[in-house]
Amino acid sequence: TCCTVPPPPTSCSLSNGVQGTCEASNSCNGVTSSSSSCSGSDVCCTSNYGTCTANGVQGDCIDSSTCTGVTTSNLCPGPAAITCCTVPPPPTSCSLSNGVQGTCEASNSCNGVTSSSSSCSGSDVCCTSNYGTCTA
Predict the structure, then answer these.
(1) Which of 1, 33, 54, 99 is deepest in the core (most CB within 10 A)?
(2) In the sheet where 113-115 sits, what is the strand order?
């Protein structure tokens, strides 16, 4: 008597192109997502949810509770808790008209002195710890 060898797993992909294999959800040691390319009750099993891009910044599709950056919904496959986690680029430097250096950021996130600056983009302002020094 001989045993039959099960067929190799069927390949599948998540909606963002991450490749996986079709298997029973209880045998997957990674991330599961339903896939139309899997038969029966099998799910697409992958090691992760993949990458994403939010507002031009590359990120990873992870559980929002573990993200230490900015989360953006509806860019990743899987359950609603899986969001695009991005780390914003470092702030752009700027200077006040008197040469005091600062960083471009949103006015509501500045803990110092704000001033408009042509080197800051959008509605960002130049944020500094003070206005500088003066001579009387």
Answers:
(1) 33
(2) 93-95, 101-105, 125-128, 113-115
